[in-house]
Design goal:
Layout (H helix, E strand, L loop, with lengths): L1 E4 L6 E4 L4 E5 L1 E8 L12 H11 L7 E7 L3 E8 L5 H8 L2 E3 L8 E7 L7 H10 L14 E8 L16 H8 L5 E5 L25 E8 L2 H11 L2 E6 L5 E4 L2 E4 L7 H190 L6 H23 L13 H12 L1 H10 L1
Antiparallel strand pairs: 1-13, 2-3, 3-12, 4-6, 4-8, 5-6, 7-8, 9-11, 9-14, 10-11, 12-13
């Protein structure tokens, strides 16, 4: 698995030609002790604990942080950082610290230690080869001189101009690991197409697009090159820096070979196995070629037999065609005879049908003439009935029109009478209004004259009573004049003014107008 590298300050150059570097592995193991869960159904989120751990190391960051183990008692994280210089700082921020989670009263204790990489030491390989009874330290491959590498990316060790960028190259592998010492031999099992068919069938051979990583064996000529390579690769991961300055790294597994993979005996055995497999492959190819030739010969014989069969079939088909042709001619002649007979029968039948049709047409013409005569008679009767109804309807319409005209004349007379009555009513109302105005004017003038002719010797009290009596008399006169009948007011006052007023009321409005003009 490859990861992006942002800080390459601690990288050590492995091969400048292929931009390969070695970068130290800086890993931390973090253990978080979990409290006892007292409430049923309540749980602690691993993701929340991981976020709290990330917050504790801020502003520093983990390049990778994953859960390596999770139980009811603790959660173990494995974190990786960019540089080893940051490890001590992170340990001081995490070790013997506490985490408080929301919803829990108990705190979570944190322990952090630097992760030790599982890598073989010099004591391991020296003791292994010293104690192994089937090893001869004087022979290459049976002594500590071979490195077993796993997890190498295929694209990083391929030829630059190779048409297969996913296929690693032994030349590139030799050039890269030549930096630690002179290489005797290298082996990439996935490049050997016969490796799966050999005795040890646990190798992955090369297939286009099939694998991203590969394993390899590198054998050094001297023990110093082997030890230098093992010491240099200890706690390191492989890094590739691109031309644009971006870098990616991947973890590789490095160990010393314990299977005598590159020993002389193993190489000879694989060579013999390869030769046997090549011979078997050649035999298979020969067998396939013979089978192919046999198949082609058989197909040729089948084609020849097929041609013979086709020829016989064609002859049979020709004979069958001739027989069918004769049969068709015979059937055609028979059909012609039958057709001629049918034609004669049709002709006789057609003549009979034509005569029958003529007779039916005559009958139909007579029936149609009779039907037309009946229809003409019915139409004449219908027209006469319609004309009679139209005359009656016309007379009714005339009567209705005369009645409507009479009603219209009566309505007009009534309207004229109503208008005349309205006019007379308005005229009478106008005369009454004018009469009332004249009476009031006349009454005022008479009161003025009567007040001037009375004697001044009478007292103020008698004059007031007389004036009151005259006013009441005149008011009664006016009220009596407004009614339908003319009545005469009788009273104790018989003065000349009152007599004049009575005469005026008796003889009508003509004298009233004359009196007004006189006054």
């Amino acid at each position: 698995m490859t990861t992006i590298v942002h800080d390459t300050t601690e990288a050590v150059c492995l091969s400048s030609e292929y931009n390969l570097y070695l970068k130290p592995i800086a890993k931390i193991t973090i253990s978080v002790a979990l409290p006892q869960l007292k409430l049923p159904g309540k749980s602690i989120s691993n993701w929340e604990v991981m976020e709290r751990v990330k917050a504790m190391v801020a502003p520093e960051q983990f390049s990778a942080l994953r859960i390596s183990k999770s139980t009811m008692d603790f959660i173990r994280f494995e974190g990786e950082v960019e540089n080893k210089t940051v490890v001590k700082s992170l340990l001081s921020r995490l070790d013997v610290k506490c985490i408080k989670l929301s919803g829990f009263t108990d705190v979570l204790k944190v322990r952090a230690v630097e992760n030790k990489v599982d890598f073989p030491t010099r004591h391991d390989w020296d003791s292994f080869f010293r104690d192994a009874k089937d090893m001869n330290e004087t022979l290459p491959g049976e002594r500590p001189d071979t490195i077993h590498l796993e997890g190498l990316p295929c694209r990083w060790f391929s030829q630059k101009d190779s048409p297969y960028p996913d296929r690693p190259s032994e030349e590139v592998l030799t050039a890269v690991f030549q930096a630690f010492g002179k290489v005797r031999h290298v082996d990439i099992p996935m490049l050997d197409p016969y490796r799966e068919e050999m005795l040890d069938k646990n190798f992955n051979t090369f297939s286009f697009g099939g694998h991203l990583n590969f394993e390899a064996y590198v054998q050094y000529q001297e023990y110093g090159g082997f030890t230098k390579a093992m010491d240099t690769l200890r706690s390191m991961k492989l890094m590739l820096k691109g031309d644009d300055g971006k870098a990616v790294a991947c973890n590789i597994k490095v160990s010393f070979d314990t299977s005598k993979h590159l020993s002389e005996l193993a190489l000879k055995r694989r060579s013999m196995e390869r030769l046997k497999l090549q011979e078997l492959e050649r035999q298979r190819e020969e067998q396939k070629r013979r089978e192919k030739e046999e198949e082609e010969r058989r197909k040729e014989e089948e084609r020849y037999d097929g041609r013979q069969k086709r020829n016989r079939k064609l002859e049979q088909e020709e004979e069958e065609k001739e027989r069918r042709k004769e049969e068709r001619l015979r059937k055609r002649e028979q059909k012609l005879r039958e057709r001629e007979e049918r034609r004669n029968l049709k002709k006789v039948r057609r003549q009979q049908e034509e005569e029958q049709k003529k007779l039916q047409m005559k009958i139909a013409m007579e029936e149609r003439r009779l039907l037309l005569a009946q229809r003409n008679l019915e139409s004449i009767r219908l027209i006469a009935e319609l004309l009679a109804r139209a005359k009656v309807r016309h007379a009714r319409q005339k009567e209705e029109l005369a009645r409507l005209q009479q009603l219209e004349a009566c309505r007009r007379k009534q309207e004229e009478e109503l208008r005349r009555v309205e006019v007379e009513k308005e005229r009478a109302l106008e005369l009454q209004r004018r009469e009332k105005e004249l009476r009031e004017k006349l009454l005022g003038n008479m009161l003025k004259k009567s007040s001037g002719k009375t004697t001044r010797s009478a007292g103020t009290q008698g004059q007031r009573s007389l004036t009151k009596n005259k006013k009441s008399l005149f008011k009664s006169k006016i009220n009596s004049t407004d009614s339908t009948e003319t009545t005469y007011v009788s009273g104790p006052c018989m003065c000349k003014a009152c007599k004049w007023l009575q005469s005026i009321l008796r003889f009508g409005f003509t004298y009233l107008f004359l009196y007004i003009s006189y006054c």
